[in-house]
Specification:
- With 301 residues, this protein is of the alpha+beta class.
- Helix content is 22%, strand content 21%.
- Strands 3, 4, 7, 8, 9, 11 and 12 form a seven-stranded mixed sheet that branches. It has a five-stranded mixed sheet with strand order 2-1-10-5-6.
- 39% of the residues are buried.
- It binds the ligand Nc1nc2c(c(=O)[nH]1)N[C@H]1C(S)=C(S)[C@@H](COP(=O)(O)O)O[C@H]1N2 and molybdenum atom.
- The ligand Nc1nc2c(c(=O)[nH]1)N[C@H]1C(S)=C(S)[C@@H](COP(=O)(O)O)O[C@H]1N2 binds next to loops.
């Protein structure tokens, strides 16, 4: 299933000519008046030039089960046993049960997806994931007609996760998507980065990636996937429902109560790099806007 999405950056985008262009000039040009003239296009081209380094992607993380510091996951997640691993797929599916990760990997075809990744805290990266479409996994289990949502759950292992001793969140970390969001071709289960197995701090052996939503929707180290009729609870919404909604679509026009979401800091951009404008649906508007037709996005934040 090798879809080529217009906004799915690939290594083909990294041309010598493009690399020659001065990124700051491109961004300054956009700010000076390029916004109306197809910013999405030029922005994705300009940003696509610089996937973040392996070092940046694997040492600046949010994975509170291992601590709340950005460096904690890289320090402590090595202790997580990720092999063997199994994922319970249950609820409204034809074939509920415990699926061994090794069986999932042999059934799925992985491909590379270079996606923008935008944390609600207003930092961002460009990450070359390897993975497969969540739809393929859900279809393997057989989604029943009554299913409207998909709930996800992360492992809780106090012995291996020093962060769960503190009640910064209710454990396990849980997340959810509407079924159409889960089945969207941009939604993937990531099992690798830069062609290598995904490191524990990034959510080994399998984590969700929903590139048009804030990063906290992309739940890590998944042990359970449940098809439900009702909207499932989600960790950050439970912790602070005024600040974090169920949808959490990247939206530069809907600010977080405590900070602006209009721009973001690209990790690794350097001390003097300008903040870059945040794009509607993180730059995937053309692909996903129709999912939210008629919805008030400031209400369903
Ligand atoms: N289980 C679990 N999943 C999680 C988190 C977490 O704390 N626990 N943090 C989320 C947040 S806030 C972000 S921004 C991303 C960070 O992914 P990364 O470390 O691979 O960049 O993971 C998300 N998934
Ligand atoms: Mo985040």
């Amino acid at each position: 299933m090798a879809h080529r999405w217009k906004n799915n950056l690939t290594w083909d985008d990294v041309t010598p000519e493009a690399a020659f262009l001065n990124r700051r000039q491109i961004i300054a040009g956009m700010a000076a008046g390029g916004i109306a003239a197809g910013l999405g296009q030029s922005a994705s081209a300009a940003e696509g030039l610089e996937p973040n380094t392996w070092e940046e992607i694997t040492t600046y993380n949010n994975f509170y089960e291992f601590g709340t510091g950005k460096g904690d996951p890289a320090k402590y997640a090595g202790s997580l046993t990720t092999d063997p691993w199994s994922v319970e797929i249950d609820g409204l599916v034809d074939k509920p049960g415990s699926y061994a990760m090794s069986d999932i990997m042999s059934a799925m075809t992985t491909e590379e997806r270079i996606y923008r990744f935008r944390c609600v805290e207003a930092w961002s990266m460009v990450i070359p994931w390897n993975g497969f479409e969540l739809a393929d996994l859900l279809n393997m289990a057989g989604v029943q007609s009554g299913a409207k949502y998909v709930a996800f759950e992360t492992a809780v292992r106090p012995d291996e996760m020093p962060g769960v001793a503190r009640n910064v969140l209710d454990w396990p970390y849980v997340e959810g998507l509407r079924l159409d969001e889960a089945m969207h071709p941009l939604t993937i289960m990531a099992t690798g980065i830069y062609g290598k197995p995904i490191p524990n701090q990034n959510g080994a052996p399998m984590r969700l990636v929903v590139p048009w939503k804030y990063g906290f929707k992309s739940i890590k180290s998944i042990v359970r996937i449940t098809l439900t009729e009702d909207e499932p609870p989600t960790s950050w919404n439970k912790a602070n429902g005024k600040e974090y909604g169920f949808y959490s679509n990247v939206n530069p026009t809907v600010d977080h109560p405590r900070w602006s979401q209009a721009s973001e800091r690209r990790v690794g951009g350097g001390l003097f790099s300008p903040r870059i404008p945040t794009l509607m649906f993180n730059g995937y508007e053309e692909e996903v806007a129709s999912l939210y037709e008629g919805m008030d996005l400031s209400k369903f934040y």
